[in-house]
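We include the entry.

. . .
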Amino acid sequence: MLLEQFNAAPAREVRELLKPCLDVPRWIEEITAARPFASLDALLSTARGAADPFTPTELEGALSHHPRIGEKAGGKSAEASMSRNEQSGVDQRDPETAAALAEGNRAYEEKFGRVFLIRAAGRSANEMLTALQERLGHTPEQEEPVVAEQLREIAVLRLKQSLLEQSPTREEPSA
């Protein structure tokens, strides 16, 4: 979808495009209502702003859609497809790293009561594992803004890719 099409599309279609990027109704509505956008940068800036801050309920709801790092999302939904693509840096043929990620995920969930979230796109499994191990040392108060920032990064990257992948002139995303 070109930016011009995004601007002119019925609100229902825009919501459908935005939901797999970040399933937070307030975020979706703020972006939908802010149309038209003069540029992709203006759209992405609005998306970042609408995602800051998240309420605790929004954060928990959004996290419920994300698989563990190292586990491929199942299903044929746009969100599952995005997640599989983002986690392409996790090579399941590396059993040591896969086991360390699985153990780190368990420890993180025990400590924080939710899935470990990181913008996986553009990161290797070892980079994600290092971040996971570092973040296990956080207090809940230190971890909360990190999780929110990772969720914002994922949402904006997904939105950008959704528009670019459907454009006739494909640009490389930079996030």
The chain is about 60% helix and 0% strand. Confidence is low (pLDDT under 50) at residues 168-175.
